[in-house]
Design brief:
This protein has about 650 residues and is mainly alpha-helical. It folds into 2 domains: about 20-50 and about 330-430 and about 465-645, Glycosyltransferase (Alpha/alpha barrel), CATH 1.50.10; about 50-215 and about 255-320, Glycosyltransferase, CATH 1.50.10. About 45% of the residues lie in helices and about 0% in strands. It has a 3-stranded antiparallel beta sheet with strand order 1-5-4, with no helix packed on it. Strands 2-3 form a two-stranded antiparallel ribbon. It is globular.
Length: about 650
Amino acid sequence: MRPQQRHVIDAESVEDGGGVPDVREGIRLAQQNLLRLQHPEGYWVGELMVDATLCADYILYMHWAEKVDAVLQEKCVQHIRARQKEDGGWNIYYGGPSEINASVKAYFALKLAGDSPSDPWMSEARATILRLGGIPHMNTYAKLYLALLGQFPWKYLPTIPVEFILLPDWLFFNVYEMSSWSRAMLMPLAIINHFKPTRFLPADKQLHELYPAGTENNDFTMRRDHRLLTWRNFFLRCDSLLKLHENTPWKPLRQAALEKAEQWMVERMGEGSDGLAAVFPAMLNSIIALKTLGYSEDNPILAKAIHDFQGLFVEDPHDFRIQPCLSPVWDTAINIVALVESGVEADHPDVRRASKWLEKKEVLMKGDWSLKNAHPEASGWAFEFNNVHYPDTDDTAMVLMGLRLVKPEDAQANERMFERALAWLLSFQCRNGGWGAFDKEVTKNWLEDVPFADHNAILDPTCSDLTGRILELLGYIGFDRADRRVERAVEYLRRTQEDDGSWYGRWGVNYIYGAWQVLRGLRAMGLNMKEDWILRARDWLESCQNEDGGWGETCATYDDPSLKGKGESTPSQTSWALMGLCACDDLDRPRIRKGINYLLRTQNCDGSWYEPQTTGTGFPKVFYLKYDMYRNNWPLLALATYENYKAGLFHRQSFYRCR
């Protein structure tokens, strides 16, 4: 049930300053709401909500494992049915169109669970799936799950040779030239690819009806580029050679590669990690790989993997859900910033509890990042509760922005930690001046044509939004604006600006996210916010405002950039746009006042906001997620930013300054 909204004075109908009491009241309520949501240990963690594919994948897994929990399966079935669209398909983001991978997986899961193809909802689903091209149009990873259950031929899947683990890290291609999440998904898949552990289903559970021309008449071969000399054609030729190798009995390196892949995987699932990369696809793949290797469920390694995976379950009695991962570090850092910037004291007990919890989560061991980055001292923060192999730059920057605002009990220890983490963060700047998320220089574009790269995330490219956030941190702590690293970052942002003034948003939806974060970073670094290129970004943001005063943008912009800045208003995206406009130093602009009024008008009586839309990005065009905490923390920070700037306060006191 949707919470009751507050009724506030229209900020545009009162004299200048007349809206201030409502802003302050909105801030007070939002602060109380966040503090109510804090866990006793000091952290916050909002749910990450995604499409129906995770529950569908789990049903597929249970049938592959030949160990079906009937109660859990029924919960997953109800989840899937509740998300079926009117046209019969399933989408991958709120309000989006039916999507082929999600629709096939959902249909298959329902069929495995006992739904009949003749049921009306199944007939509608099948019609939509065939309209979208059927199983042949699915991506590689979705087809692999079908292959495990005998519903897609292994020989038509791209070969993932396990021997690639043996390639030295100095070679132009090796596992560390791929993004961290791709490595974590592919390592267990390489093991699975070797064994091909197929379960054969009875005839009434198979998917012949989802092949437009029938299973015998479809052309499953991967499409070549019409041009002759392209990377895609080169890799397809390599795949053909690899398939020949797979069919020969002589594989002198295979056993050594399998053992090393197993060791690589198990090491990253052990102490300090809540599962392989602590993210759903890698975790589920690793469980399948371990079972394939012969691990029993009473083996401590597999038992831990299963326990970690079950930690993603949300046991809501009304709607069972599975999360793709958990976000406590990210949520806690943002909430500290929002609370202290909005006036909560820097030594408030709840804020200090949160900062102490974050300090304990600093990663002090060298993980995968060290293969591409020679920085001598480990530091940084990961997204999840425990993920020591994969700290990232975005979380580290946000954590440091939060910790700088909290009055430390031990100033010297705080300063040492801050300097250590800041040096680690700066070491990830790439040659082009920007920052990626998990690794340094994982940017070889030709890898995007590898046949198993159709999840649109084989690389970890530099991003304008990440670069803007790091500049924001550097500005707040007094980093030298003339430092060459700052200059290179600003040059990178100028190069990556779109013609209309916006920036692409890699980790949030989408151009509103990118433009906000860049503008906030530029202002923090003290740039002249009246320069033409910066004002173009301001004008673009203003041009996207909806009639109701808010801003919104759909995930469809990743497929069709002409839709950028368009969508129904959301609290999180409105907050980003407002903070971007406030960064341009003209708070009296009518669109800012109208946006502030939108946030106040839509705030609920308990201090929260309602936001069903998807505004978080996992893999553009492939996977999106709704951060449930976003509807609560970003609006508070936007209101605080408006109030602080009106009072002439650039930002709250920082307890760490660069020397």
